[in-house]
Amino acid sequence: MEELCGLDEIASLPGLEEATPDVVGAVLEEAAKVAGEVLAPINQQGDVQGSVWSDGKVTTPDGWKDAYATFIAGGWNGAVNEPEWGGMGLPWLVNAAVQEMIHSANMAFALCPMLTQGAIEAITLNGSEELKQRFLPKMVSGEWTGTMNLTEPQAGSDLSAVRSRAERADGHYLISGQKIFITYGDHDLTDNIIHLVLARCPDAPPGVKGISLFVVPKFILDDNGAPGELNDVQCVSIEHKLGIHGSPTAVLSFGDKGGAVGYLVGEENRGLEYMFVMMNLERLVVGIQGLGISERAYQQAVSYARERVQGQPVGTKGERLPIIHHPNIRRKLLAMRAEIEAMRAVAFAAARASDLYDRHPDAAVQAFNKARLELLTPIVKGWCTERSVELTSIGVQVHGGMGYIEETGASQHFRDARITPIYEGTTAIQANDLVGRKIIRDKGQTVRALLDEMRGLESALASNRDDQASAAALSAALMAGIADASSVVDWLLDAAGRDQRLPLVAANYVLLLFGTLIGGHEMARAALAAGRRLAAGEGDPAFLTAKITTARYYAEHVMPRIAGFTRAIIDGSATVLALDTELL
Fold it and tell me: Can you tell me the distance from the alpha carbon of 329 to that of 399, in angstroms, rounded to the nearest whole number?
C-alpha cells in the first residue's frame, strides 16, 4: 500500500485526508481481529452445516447471526461509504485489504456484505434522492442487506433474454418473474432485504436496451420508514452447491400474488447500464475473493507443513523433520506465496485507480484512472480467480492424503474457490470484455500506455547495484513479457479485421497473459523497494529479503508462461476453428 500504491497520494485526495499510515494501520488491525477472531472460527462449521431452506424461509448456520451483529457494530459494512450515510469513508485501497481479510476468513459469510455494497453503489450513483433517503442509511449500517437479481432460468448470462415484467402502478411498479442464483436472496440476519431487480416495462424495446432496474424490498416500508407489509416476493428454494455452503443461493419468485412493489432506479430502459455499476464493483471484489481464499489456503498449507513430520528430507542426517524441509514442498509453498503477492499487488493497483478516478480534482487524471480501472477490472476478476483454483489445489496437495479429508479444511478452500471464476461473469466473459472493449475498441491505446509504463522500470533494474543477479533476472523476464504482450496486441487488432472469432478464441489466454505480466511488473517494483529499504537499514530484513526472493521466483518460474500464451494466441488460435463442431 505504501510502496506500490502510493498511500500518501491517496490520503491527499479530497475526503480521504484522514487515511494516514497510522490510521490505516489501526483500521487493518481491527479488521484483522474481526476476521481472525469472529469470522474464521465459524467458517468450517458454516461449510458443514450450510444454510437451510424450510417453508419459504432460510436459516443461516450457527454463529452467523452473532458474527453479523459484530460485523455491522464495527461499521465494516459501510467501510467505503460516505459519512453522510453513516459510512467510514475509507479509500478503496484500504477497503481492498479489509475485503481480502474477511474473504480469507469466511468467504461464504463475506458474500452478504459484498452484495450489499454493490447495491448501495448502484442506488448512490443512479437512484433518486427519495430512494437514497429511504434505503441507504439502513443499508450502509448493515441493518438491511442488498441483493442483485439478474439471472433467470432461460437467460443465464444472456441478459437480453430477461423476461421479468414491470407494470406501472400508482407511484411504483409491480414486478413479476423468477430470478435464480441470488446470493443471500433470503436469510435471517436482518429484518429487511433490498433486492435490485432487472425487469421490462410493457412497451420496452427488445434486447438489453429494454431492461429497467428496480428496488424491491422484501418488506414494504411503512410511513415511518420501517419494514411493514411483506412484499410479493418468495424464496422458493436454495441451491445445493459444491462450496460456499453457508451462503444461501436463492431462487426468488416475484409477483405470485399480483406483483411485488418496486421502485424505479433512474430512468426506464437504462437498467443494465445502472446494474453494471454494481456488477463492476462486484467483479473487482470477486477478484479479491480469489486472492483471499488463496491466502487462506497458503496459511493453512504452511502451518500444516511446519507440523507434519514425515520421512527424512534429502540432505539431512538421519533426522525426521517436518515436511516443510522437503524440497518439493518448499517449491509448492513458494509458488503459492509468489503468485499471491502478485495477485495482491494487481488487485490493490485497481483499487488505487478507483480512488483516483473517484476523487482526484484533475479531470485528466480522473480519465486516465477510469481507463486504467476498466482495463484492470476484468484482469483482476478473471486472473485472480483462475489462479485461486490452482493455488488452493496446491494447498490440498501440500496436505497429501489429509488434504482430501474434510476435517483439515483444505478441501473447503478448494471447493469455495471454484465458484469465483464463474459468478459475476465467467472468465470467458471477462476475457471477451478485455479483448473486445478494452483493447480492440480503443485500438490498444490504454493497454499500450500500460506497457510503456512497464518499460520504464528497465533502467531502474539496470542501475540496481545491491543485487545484480536478481535485478537481471527480473529485467529479462519483464522485458521479454512486455515484448510478447505488445506482439499480442498487434495480432489482436489485425485478427479482428480478418475474422472476428479469432480474438475470442484467444481471449482467455490474453487475460492470463496480462494478469501474469502485470503481476510480474508489480513484483519487480516490490523487489526494488525492498532493496532500497534493506540498503537504508529500514524495516524487517527477513521480510524484505523474502520479497526479493519471491519476486525472483515469480520472474523465473511464472513469467515464462507468457511465452507459451503468446505462441498459443498467435500460432494456435486458428486451429480451434479448424475442427468441425460436429466432431467435438
Answer: 10
Q: pLDDT tens-digit profile of 75-108?
A: 999 999 999 999 999 999 999 999 999 999 999 9
Contact 417, 293 (CB under 8 A): yes
- Measured distance CA(523)–CA(536) in Å, rounded: 20
Distance CA 331, CA 335 (A): 6
Cell output for 156: 443465464
Which pLDDT tens digit goes with each residue over 546-565? 999 999 999 999 999 999 99
The one catalytic residue in 282, 339, 341, 424 is 424
Please calculate the CA angle 245-251-252 and round it to the nearest 5 degrees.
Answer: 135
> Is-contact 350 378, C-beta < 8 A?
no
> Does pLDDT of 318 surpass 80?
no
H runs (alpha helix) in 64-128: 64-73, 92-105, 107-126
CB 403, CB 395: distance < 8 Å: yes
Q: Is 501 exposed, middle or buried (0-12, 13-18, 19+ CB in 10 A)?
A: middle
Give the C-alpha separation, 478 to 518, whole Å.
9
Residue 198's DSSP bridge partners are: 213
Confidence band for 158, pLDDT divided at 50, 70 and 90: confident
Does residue 584 carry a pLDDT above 90?
A: no
CA distance 548 to 39: 32
Helix (H) or strand (E) holding 305: helix 271-307
Concerning whether 424 is annotated as a catalytic residue, the answer is yes
DSSP string computed for 41-90: GGHHHHHHH--EEETTEEEPPTTHHHHHHHHHHTTGGGTTS-GGGT----
Q: Which candidate, 427, 550, 436, places its Cα nearest to that of 502?
A: 436
Counting Cβ atoms within 10 Å, is residue 176 exposed (0-12), middle (13-18) or buried (19+)?
Answer: buried
CA atoms within 13 A on the CB side of 40: 20
Work out whether the CA dihedral 441, 443, 444, 448 comes out positive or negative: negative
Question: What was the pLDDT predicted at 163?
Answer: 92
Question: Which triple of cell numbers denotes residue 489?
Answer: 496486441
Segment among 305-319, 357-371, 466-480 with least mean pLDDT:
305-319
Q: What is the pTM of this model?
A: 0.96
Of 155, 160, 146, 246, nearest to 197 (Cα)? 146
- Residue 574's CB: how many other CB atoms inside 10 A? 15
CB 297 within 8 A of CB 395: yes
268: Cα separation from own chain's centroid: 29
